[in-house]
């Protein structure tokens, strides 16, 4: 039981780290390789800034100065990724409390409920990250294969694959956390009666009381008291 929860927490923690890395990355979409060979320049775009580089190794990044000029799908992806990171943070806290190897959280039944709650939070975090990356990728592919789209075409960046991998880890780890409450309910707890430590004197007195008294009673005459 301990090993399963530890594996689930490792999955979720790695998924949270991948979501943070994908959110901060600037490689959500990159310029097409075919055009990059001709111009020898690369353009990277992320959720927070746009970057451009050349074959000499020089890079220049420009952040989005205002959110009102950012396209709607980028703002939606921002909100989903921020929600995924926040949910993953709270899920990690509840996961630590709900694990049986920790000293906080109360009884085993209470810790199992907390672990199940952490699993649900991680699943929601993974779904938010998965939705954000899929929405961004759908926009890139639709523009790339649209023959009427004459502007610069982009390809899928590395941040999307990192986000998909992190979302999968969060969903898998959260599912394992949710199954922990079912496993805890299937294994009933056994109660043991504690009789306390028996002292040596009490044991001897019990043995003496258990032995019947075989001595014959003495009969005294009335004259013995005179």
From TrEMBL:
The keyword Transmembrane helix applies. It holds the Pfam family PMP22_Claudin. It is a multi-pass membrane protein. The chain crosses the membrane at residues 80-102, 114-137, 157-182. Residues 1-21 form the signal peptide. GO terms for cellular component: bicellular tight junction; plasma membrane. Gene3D superfamilies: 1.20.140.150. It is found in: Cell junction, Tight junction; Cell membrane. GO terms for molecular function: structural molecule activity. Claudins function as major constituents of the tight junction complexes that regulate the permeability of epithelia. Belongs to the claudin family. This is Claudin. It comes from Strigops habroptila.
